[in-house]
TrEMBL record:
Keywords recorded for this protein, A-Z: Metal-binding, Methyltransferase, Transferase, Zinc
Alphabetized NCBIfam families for the sequence: PRK09485.1
PROSITE patterns: HCY
Protein's UniProt name: Hcy-binding domain-containing protein
Length: 355
């Protein structure tokens, strides 16, 4: 992908999406609803081993809810994590590729269903409107691999350094970039050091763009205590980064975080918070009745868009119903968006065919 393609992919996509694009919601929440047991260090990536059909179904559920971007099941999929479970490095690399393949298959199947459907919207709320859809390859933080909740603290110890983090993530990022995804989603980035590591890795010949999504627990800084403004500035300085924002953060903090990000970047801002529930890292479960009701979550979205967010969706504990409700709130794109179809060229570039 050329520099021009990297520079224009997101702006072109947002234009064709009517100015605001819809990201999908929680993956693990839905996999568990379908019966998957994710009590494992691999978390949702466990399903890459033996339940790929469930991942594909969840992707389809979100597309039918109106999502314009689906995020792969690779957040906690690392080569090191698969090796620790007894798989070979080659197996781990294969699982990473598979995460992208599943999402692309779901997109293809969804577009086929759109072509076969005589209506754009069904009575039960499903969306079959043909539109551009992006596949974002998820890269979780080093803390996600540790599976000890440190992606919610950003505390990797005093011995942690930039070169270690780059070495940990390098091969994984290379594989995902070469697997057919449209962009890389660096998610739940808990500190400035890891943002810098991701930024430098993107300059090592990675040929697709990326977004950076940080997380916060106080509405001011990222979870490590590092300045969000400084972290967002790292993303802004990287030419491969085409959007900057926040994920897996309580909705009540989002407004202030958008204001901070806007001060340091003109790149599109993405917002996909969790439900607001608290996560108990020791019990490895979400604390019930600590979040916001779905209707309250959805009611925030217009405000976030008015403040400058142009990519919105949900993270942990949000569902296709959440995304469907957000879709219904967004301005209609039927009048301004041509019928579109995603085609992958040999170079892996997203091509958009209109008719």
């Amino acid at each position: 992908m050329s520099n021009i393609d990297v520079d224009t992919l997101m702006s072109d996509f947002l234009h064709k999406s009517g100015g605001v694009a819809l990201i999908d919601g929680g993956l693990a929440t839905e996999l568990e609803r379908y019966g998957a047991d994710l009590n494992d260090p691999l978390w949702s990536a466990k399903c890459l081993v033996n339940s790929t059909h469930l991942i594909r179904q969840v992707h389809l559920d979100y597309l039918e809810a109106g999502a314009d971007i689906i995020i792969t099941a690779s957040y906690q999929a690392t080569i090191q994590g698969f090796v620790a479970k007894g798989y070979s490095s080659e197996d781990g690399e294969s699982m990473l590729r598979k995460s992208v393949e599943i999402a692309c298959e779901a997109r293809d199947l969804y577009h086929q269903r759109c072509r076969e459907s005589s209506i754009d919207y069904t009575a039960d709320g499903r969306v079959f409107k043909h539109r551009p859809i992006l596949v974002a390859a998820s890269v979780g933080s080093y803390g996600a691999y540790l599976a000890d909740g440190s992606e919610y603290s950003g505390d990797y110890g005093n011995a942690m350094n930039l070169e270690f983090l780059k070495g940990f993530h390098r091969r994984r990022v290379q594989i995902l970039a070469e697997s057919g995804a449209d962009l890389i989603a660096f998610e739940t980035i808990p500190n400035k050091l890891e943002a810098q590591a991701f930024s430098e890795l993107l300059e090592e010949g990675i040929n697709i763009p990326a977004w950076f999504a940080f997380n916060s627990k106080d509405g001011v800084n990222v979870v490590s205590g590092d300045s969000l403004a400084e972290c967002a500035a790292v993303a802004d300085s990287c030419k491969k980064v085409v959007a900057v924002g926040i994920n897996c953060t309580p909705p009540r903090f989002i407004g202030g975080l958008i204001s901070t990000i806007k001060k340091v970047t003109n790149k599109p801002i993405l917002i996909y918070p969790n439900s607001g529930e608290s996560y108990d890292a020791q019990l490895k479960q979400w604390v019930q009745n600590t979040g916001v009701a779905e209707e309250d979550f959805v009611s925030y979205v217009n405000t976030w868009c008015e403040m400058g967010a142009s990519l919105v969706g949900g993270c942990c504990r949000t569902t296709p119903d959440t995304i469907r409700a957000i879709h219904k709130m967004l301005p209609s794109r039927s009048a301004s968006t041509p019928i579109a179809e995603n085609l992958q060229s040999d170079s892996g570039r997203l091509m958009i065919k209109t008719a």
